[in-house]
Design goal:
mainly alpha, about 240 residues, globular
């Protein structure tokens, strides 16, 4: 997911087609990540309500904000993709507004991912150092989890509904903040396009520029590393 987030920030490196398919592949990974980490999320939010400590509130708020921004970016990406505009059109909102949401929030997501890494720094280091051993107890636990599909399915549906509501809320905020001319700009474009264009809402292909893409990728990686280090050693973000 970390690699995909960085690569998806560089449209020049992948072109539009690969950008869309990599974005589609990120959606189920984020969903699985939230489902697998569900107990941890619940523990953090309970700590936020019970203890009332500033650290618990910051940790829970940061993760909730990252979920909201990631949901908005992924949902808006689907809405403005070639597949989305062909199948959905503007039935679920103006493509122009979704495009603005997708473009404006990308950098915010990158910053939040860096803070999320800083927050989970100790856990990441421990996982990389830990020896991976298979014990009978662990194997039985995994086998028991594999037999129950009801709970993961309920969690998946819950995450999807929450993500849809968060993305919709951000869309309406962006819609309300946009000017009336901007709200109908895409409609005017469709009207002036004429019947010669099969789907004027569909995004135009993007030419691949590897040198420019690699330069942007290096910049994004440096930003991500800087935010992670600042969050870890400057803000001293910790899970506990």
């Amino acid at each position: 997911m970390l690699v995909l987030v960085c690569v998806l920030e560089c449209l020049d490196l992948t072109g539009l087609a690969w950008h869309e398919w990599l974005g589609f592949s990120l959606c189920p990974l984020v969903l699985l990540h939230v489902i697998w980490q569900w107990p941890w999320f619940m523990t953090q939010f309970r700590r936020m309500r019970s203890s009332g400590t500033g650290r618990a509130r910051v940790n829970a708020g940061l993760n909730l904000l990252l979920l909201a921004m990631m949901a908005a970016v992924l949902v808006s990406g689907v809405m403005v993709s070639r597949l989305g505009t062909s199948a959905i059109g503007e039935n679920l909102g103006r493509v122009r507004i979704w495009s603005d949401v997708h473009g404006y929030l990308n950098f915010i997501v990158l910053v939040l991912v860096g803070l999320h890494l800083a927050l989970n720094w100790d856990w990441l280091v421990a996982e990389m150092r830990r020896r991976r051993t298979d014990t009978p107890a662990n194997a039985g636990e995994l086998e028991g989890r594999g037999r129950s599909w009801a709970r993961p399915m309920v969690r998946a549906i819950t995450v999807l509904l929450v993500a849809a509501m968060l993305a919709g809320t951000i869309y309406f905020i962006a819609y309300g903040l946009s000017s009336p001319e901007k709200r109908i700009a895409r409609t005017r474009f469709v009207a002036s396009a004429g019947p010669q264009m099969q789907n004027p809402l569909r995004p135009q292909p993007r030419r691949i520029d590897v040198p420019e893409g690699l330069m942007k990728l290096s910049y994004k990686v440096l930003v991500l590393a800087a935010v992670t280090l600042i969050g870890r050693f400057g803000f001293r973000l910790r899970l506990n």
